[in-house]
Design a protein that fits this description.
The complex is a heterodimer of chains A (about 110) and B (about 110). By secondary structure, chain A is mainly beta. Chain A contains no helices and nine strands. Chain B is globular, with a radius of gyration of 13 Å. Classes of the chains: A mainly beta (about 110), B mainly beta (about 110).
């Protein structure tokens, strides 16, 4: 699976949009981009995933550049409960066998009043 | 509500003792996974199972064993051969192992050595 690069930490004011970047310049054609977050002492929570089109769900939006070498997770109105470590993961699928999720060190998002 | 249940939340192991961590899911998922997380680090895959009665070793299987006798259950045994078992253990499941559908996680079991 391709390697991802994320900033180690970011701050965001409550009520503002949080934009979390991820670089995955070596991504292959069959690799999806997944975003998870982990609040201390809890299991990772799935947020969103996509291949090449932008995606939106009730939690967030995922913007993938046209060349697929980077993406941005957008939390439209951040709250204090969004404070967590956010992981961007690239994973090959449809390979015929199960594949693991490779978590890096992620971005620690701190939402402040 | 559908989800993944891990128990216990905290577990203590004595030297030379085997312990078993429970993972149950009611999502009707075929694939299940066990990961280990050490402080400040990412997740490492221990074992995974794509279907009942079948499982495969992950990156760090030594000192661990699993079984998959039922679709909804995937228990992990940490044996005495695992010399550094203190960690946060996470169970996950997905509809299929090889599709693009995401893995969903339980809330983990924290294992410590007495």
């Amino acid at each position: 699976d391709a390697k991802t690069t994320q900033p180690p930490s970011m701050d965001c004011a409550e009520g503002r949009a949080a934009n979390l970047p991820c670089n995955h310049s070596t991504i292959s054609g069959n690799e999806y981009v997944y975003w998870y977050r982990q609040i201390h002492s809890q299991g990772p929570q799935y947020i969103i995933h996509g291949l090449k089109n932008n995606e939106t769900n009730e939690m967030a939006s995922l913007i993938i550049t046209e060349d697929r070498k980077s993406s941005t997770l957008i939390l439209p109105h951040a709250t204090l409960r969004d404070t967590a470590v956010y992981y961007c993961i690239v994973r090959a699928t449809n390979t015929g066998t199960a594949s693991k999720l490779t978590f890096g060190t992620g971005t620690r998002l701190q939402v402040t009043l | 509500d559908g989800g993944i249940t891990q128990s216990p939340k905290y577990l203590f192991r004595k030297e030379g003792q085997n312990v078993t961590l429970s993972c149950e899911q009611n999502l009707n998922h075929d694939a299940m996974y066990w990961y280990r997380q050490d402080p400040g680090q990412g997740l490492r895959l221990i074992y995974y199972s794509q279907i009942v009665n079948d499982f495969q070793k992950g990156d760090i299987a030594e000192g661990y064993s699993v079984s998959r006798e039922k679709k909804e259950s995937f228990p992990l045994t940490v044996t005495s051969a695992q010399k550094n078992p203190t960690a946060f253990y996470l169970c996950a499941s997905s509809i299929e192992g090889y599709s693009n559908q995401p893995q969903h996680f339980g809330d983990g079991t924290r294992l410590s050595i007495l």
